[in-house]
Amino acid sequence: ICTSERAKNTAISLLPIIGWMKTYSFKEWLLNDILSGVSTGLVAVLQGLAFSLLASIPTWYGLYAAFFPVIMYFFLGTSRHISVGSFPVLSLMVGAVVTRLVPDEGLPANITAFEGLTKEEQRVLVSASLTFLVGLFQLGMGLLQVGFIVMYLSDTLISGFTTAAAVHILISQLKFVLGLTVPGFSGPLSIIYTLESVFTQITSTNIHDLVTSIVVMVMVLGVKEINDRFKSKLKVPIPIEIIMTVIACGVSYAFNFSENHGVDVVGKIPNTLQVFQMAAVDAFPIAIVGFAVAFAVAKVYSVKHDYVIDGNQELIAFGASNIFGGAFKSLAASTALSRSAVQESTGGKTQVAGLLSAIIVLVVILGIGFLLEPLPKSVLGAVVIVNLKGMLMQVVTVPYLWKKDRPDCIVWVGTCLAAIFLGLDIGLAVGLGLELLTVVFRAQFPRCSVLANISGTDIYRDRKDYVNVSIYEPEGVKIFRIPSPIFFANIDFFRDKLKDAVGFNPLRILRKRNKAVKKMKKLLKKGELILTSNGLQATCSMPIEESEDESNMEDLDKPTDYSDLPIQVNWSADLPANIRVPPVNIHSLILDFSAVSFLDISALKGLKAIKEFIRINVDVYIVGSYIIEKLRNCKFFDDEIKTSIFFLTIHDAMLFINESHPPKTVSEKVMKTFGDCTSLICSFKD
Predict the structure, then answer these.
(1) What is the largest CA-CA distance in the chain?
(2) What confidence tens digit (pLDDT) does each residue in 111-151 have?
(3) Strand order across the 646-647 sheet
(4) Do residues 317 and 116 lie in contact, with contact meaning Cβ atoms separated by under 8 Å?
(5) What is the per-residue DSSP string for 220-235?
């Protein structure tokens, strides 16, 4: 039945901007979004120019990826913090298709649409058509609700794949850094052929390009280290890439590098179906990788700032963005972690910052782009290489994976080596194959055991399996059973089901409690909250606060600090000053992992979330002996999560719980029912 409410929900689902714009705080957020938008826009300009080199197309077309897709994502995207635009791995994958269909040497592919076009125009046509096709794939997957597909791209696979891509990118930029003319190669062993061509011409290196690149890399790396070391003191990171770009433009223009020294510069802004058929196979992995990277980054920021992102809507948003961008000859768009970090760290609250960054790019395209014409391409190559540091440093995880999880290590190494030597598309397929093999191997050969009745213990079974039998849940205790291994593909499902079972989100409860304690301390200092014989009471009526302050969100995730409070807060009772915190109706949680035969690295990270329960005074106990050794080897236990939470059976855990939380008698339950009506707000500390 079509109702107005259903139509409204559908509109908000398809156009998330309707939802968040209604709650947009112009007074608190607009200035932050403006500052973030300008900072991100400047970075987007430089990265757009640099990443277009990876796609083997004229540099200016990289700017279109920082404008057209951003406009569409502003209306359709669910993430408030990612910066949409070019991404080096995607640009390199596009470049492989471009150089295959329009090689540097020899004739282009037999495509009717190429007739009458220059080689540069042919390459732009291939890039734009591929971007459009990527958008069609993403939009189709979004409409078919298959956003779950990214679950099968594990952290290990993505890490190995992006490391291999970083190696490809590094090799591809050598020709710009050294000032050489190296033809583009594609397909298996293309990296070997590229290195062979580079070293064959190494004596022809352009010294001016080399010196310029070395100076830029040293300066950018040095200042980036300063930014990392003093990030707590710097409100905005020093935009060293922008500074060095401006200096390089000035020096190149003053000494006429292009004419006098043969330096290749950016130059002026330039004022079909057959392509689709030949690029369709390549477009699908590009669509998957682009979405997987963007969704992973978006998920990080959604957790940090406590809002929800929709995987299927993100597919629709990126699909529409790439279709729109492809129509205007844009590069395939995703997100870059470094650019998104700039947008978030400079105070960006919503995609208004992204829209403003697109406006900055538009100003460059239409107004001041001529100032970048003398920019040497070697500077862009140096910037690209410096930004590979994070991806290349992922190789240090290999020894850790080998010691802690060898199947994951095999996936990482296999994906990385296959992508380096066979190409990114084949490497991704090899990685998926290896990953599926490890899952099949682990799931097909679980650690089996024979169960037996332990004398003097009770049996715990699912209530749904015993409809006609008297069965009850222990008061204040929730028992949650996992009947399968826990790994990257089901860890999010496990966490969601656990929240559904207990009836609340522990992280949200923790944040609300920390905010409540901060507010009580603040009111105590102001004298608006006083201590009476009945607990804490407000001196005057106060409005109910529902706003969610996103500032210092990381501090709200820490254990609650009750220091400076004269009493112990009773979270089960009404709180003073109209402070609202959702109640927690359990005191203990038992996780039955007796059927869990293995955990991977992604699961270990996810299980750390039990700290959120511990921090809201819910005791957590784990039943199962198979995984304790793995947890100990991976240093899972700390000051909050101790080995003492493990028990051999559920009944052993219940006996321990009943000692610390004795079950209430019938008379005590009756007294509690009447006592709740007159309960104190807070009780004095012992």
Answers:
(1) 97
(2) 888 888 888 889 999 999 999 999 999 999 999 888 777 77
(3) 477-481, 588-592, 619-623, 646-647
(4) no
(5) HHHHHHHHHHTTTT-S
